[in-house]
Design a protein that fits this description.
7 helices; single chain; seven-stranded parallel beta sheet; 241 residues
C-alpha cells in the first residue's frame, strides 16, 4: 500500500464513488471527494466524518479543467500529493443507438467517461512521480470487457478506450511507482440505472451487484502490496450473461 494515503475520488457524491470513498476512509485513507453536485459531495464527506474518518469536500465537474485543477490544488495544499485516485464519474443516455443518438451527447459522454479520466490523471501524475507511489483505479464497465450492445455506442466506446489508457499508464509510469487498474463491474444497483431505456424493477435489482461490492473491489486494488499491480479486474453478478 502507499506510504502516502491521500485518496481523491471523482464521482464521489453517489453510487460506486461514494461507497468507495467511505470504504477507503474506514481503511485509514484521507479521502478528498469530488462531484458536480456540492450537496451530494458534502453528504459523502459528512458520512465519513461522522464515522470518524478524514475527508475533504472538493466539488468539481470532471469536464471542466479549471474546476478540477482548483480541486487538486486544494487537496495538495491541505494534505500533500495525491497518491491514490479512484475515477468513478460516468455518464450515459437512454438514446443509445446510431438511429437515435445525438452526436453532441455522444461527445459529452466521451468527455465524461474517457477524456476526464486523462484530465484528472494528468493533474496527479507529477505528485505521484515525486512521491514514487501512485495507485489509480479507473471504474469502467463490463461493456469495456465484453461487447455489450445494450450499453450504447458512446458509452461502450468510451469505456473500451479506458483499457488502453490504463495500459499506457502501467507501461510508461510503472518505473515511477505508479500502477493503474481497469475495473470492469457488471450490472450494479445504483441510481445510474435510471438512464437505461428500460429501468430495471426491484426484483431485477436484487440480482445485481451492490455499490459496496464494487467498493470492496476498489479496496482490494488500493490495499494490495506496493509491488502488486492489478491490471484489470472484471466482476459480475452471478447469472449475468
Amino acid at each position: 500500500m502507499s506510504d502516502f494515503r491521500v485518496l481523491w475520488v471523482t464521482g464521489g457524491g453517489s453510487g460506486m464513488g461514494r461507497a468507495s470513498a467511505i470504504a477507503a476512509a474506514e481503511a485509514g485513507w484521507k479521502v478528498a471527494v469530488s462531484g458536480r453536485r456540492a450537496s451530494a459531495v458534502q453528504d459523502t464527506v459528512d458520512r465519513i466524518r461522522s464515522a470518524g474518518g478524514t475527508a475533504l469536500d472538493v466539488p468539481a465537474d470532471v469536464r471542466d479543467t479549471a474546476s478540477l485543477r482548483a480541486a487538486h490544488e486544494r487537496i495538495v495544499g491541505e494534505w500533500g500529493p495525491v497518491t491514490g485516485l479512484v475515477l468513478a464519474a460516468g455518464l450515459n443516455t437512454p438514446q443509445r443507438n446510431w438511429n437515435d443518438q445525438s452526436i453532441d451527447e455522444f461527445a459529452t459522454i466521451v468527455d465524461t467517461n474517457l477524456t476526464s479520466v486523462a484530465r484528472t490523471v494528468d493533474l496527479v501524475l507529477p505528485g505521484m512521480r515525486e512521491a514514487g507511489s501512485g495507485n489509480v483505479v479507473v471504474v469502467s464497465s463490463r461493456s469495456a470487457w465484453r461487447f455489450s450492445p445494450g450499453s450504447g455506442v458512446a458509452y461502450m466506446s468510451s469505456k473500451t478506450a479506458l483499457g488502453a489508457l490504463v495500459a499506457s499508464l502501467n507501461d510508461q509510469e510503472g518505473a515511477n511507482g505508479v500502477k493503474a487498474c481497469h475495473l470492469c463491474p457488471g450490472d450494479v444497483d445504483t441510481d445510474f440505472l435510471s438512464l437505461r431505456p428500460e429501468v430495471p424493477d426491484a426484483d431485477q435489482r436484487l440480482s445485481m451487484l451492490t455499490e459496496d461490492d464494487v467498493a470492496r473491489s476498489v479496496m482490494f486494488v488500493l490495499e494490495s502490496p506496493k509491488h502488486v499491480r492489478i491490471d484489470e479486474l472484471a466482476i459480475s453478478p452471478v447469472g449475468q450473461r
